[in-house]
Amino acid sequence: MNTADDRAEPGASWLRGCGTALVTPFVADGSLDETRVRALVRRQIEAGIHFLVPCGTTGESVTLTRGEKVRVTELVVEAAGGAVPVVAGCGGNDTAEVRALAGELEAAGADGLLVVTPYYNKPTPDGLFLHYTAVAEATGLPVVVYNVPGRTGVNVAPGTLARLASIPGVAAVKEAAGDIMQMGRVLKAVPEGFAVLSGDDAAVLAAMALGAHGVISVASNQIPGPMAELCDLCLAGDFAGARRVHNRWLDLMDANFCETNPGPVKFAMAEMGLLEAHYRLPLTGIGSENRRRVMEAMRASGLVGSAAPA
After folding, report:
1. Bridging pattern class, strands 51-53 and 17-21
2. How far apart are CA 39 and CA 148, in angstroms?
């Protein structure tokens, strides 16, 4: 478990293992379900997760107000009680707005910030460098670059990421380009001590075999214990054991992306009794065929229909 002393060290040496990209539970009228937020955090910690990541893509961050992002972060920090670090989502496509939010999330108790590359703007490499420099200068927290070109329209090439890694305070990347060759080149390009985290559950075994430090996971919303175990086995060099965990849950990892995230994972969590499957438009519930697909993956892995793991 990461301690407060670990988090006080320079850089982000505590960014290892499995961090859960937490869903944001809502009630029927669309407002935050604060009781569920707290319960989900407690479940994660009891299962042995390594860190928590509220208000990212899986948390429907783009439909949360600035005040809601701060409130969700406060709730997660409070419920975690210092047991694990909290890396709060702090992305946006307006650098000034991201800088302001960074300060508020730091005041809310976050241990780090997940900062997605600006979407829609399609910044150049120079624009990305200046954006991350400005954000890092606005906070004392370690900044995690979030590269997800399928959502943002801009890919952070390995050479550009190496340049971003030179910015004081930029300590890690969530690499979610879905390209294992790029993952290898990222690991080759960045300096020692810079944390590289997979953004793809199905690729985490391969990524960690190449030297990645862990994952920011969607599937760990459903199965925090097994995803933490998968990362622990990889970090210990037990790749045979890691393959067994990976193979058991691979169909679930895949099914979680049969429609736009977090539609499938929220549906699955509702079936598990963990929340009510409410979304904010323009996201909606998943279609009937994909509901069947998710249920088949859950049954095949033993997540439902038998004694379920944490």
Report:
1. parallel
2. 29
With tokens 């997660």, the residue in question is 76
- Band of residue 8 on the pLDDT scale cut at 50, 70, 90: very low
Residue 20: strand pairing partners: 52, 217
Instruction: Give the CA distances from residue 119 to residues 27, 39, 41, 100, in Å, rounded to whole numbers and listed in that order.
Output: 28, 32, 29, 18
C-alpha 45/C-alpha 83 separation (Å) is 7
Find the DSSP H helices in 153-202.
158-164, 180-189
Burial bucket for residue 270 (CB in 10 Å: 0-12, 13-18, 19+): middle
Q: Which positions are annotated as active-site residues?
A: 146, 174
H-helix or E-strand containing 225? helix 224-235
**Structure confidence at residue 309 (pLDDT):** 54
Residues 120 and 93: beta-carbon distance below 8 Å: yes
Distance CA 237, CA 94 (A): 41
What pLDDT, on a 0 to 100 scale, did the predictor assign at position 189? Answer: 97
Closest CA relative to residue 78, chosen from 51, 106, 108 = 108
Q: How far apart are CA 27 and CA 202, in angstroms?
A: 30
Query: What proportion of the chain, given as a percentage, has pLDDT over 70?
Result: 95
Query: Helices (H) and strands (E) in the chain — how many of each?
Result: 13, 8
Residue 42 is which amino acid?
R
pLDDT band at 93 (very low <50, low <70, confident <90, very high): very high
Tokens of residue 100, six digits: 């302001």
Count CB-CB contacts under 10 A for residue 27. 14
What is the amino acid identity at position 199? G
pTM of the model: 0.94
**What's the pLDDT tens digit per position in 212-265?**
999 999 999 999 999 999 999 999 999 999 999 999 999 999 999 999 999 999
φ, ψ for residue 110, nearest 5 deg: -65, 150
The DSSP annotation for 118-143 comes to: PSSS---HHHHHHHHHHHHHT-SS-E
- Angle made by CA atoms 68, 69, 74, in degrees to the nearest 5: 95
Name beta bridge partners: 27.
none
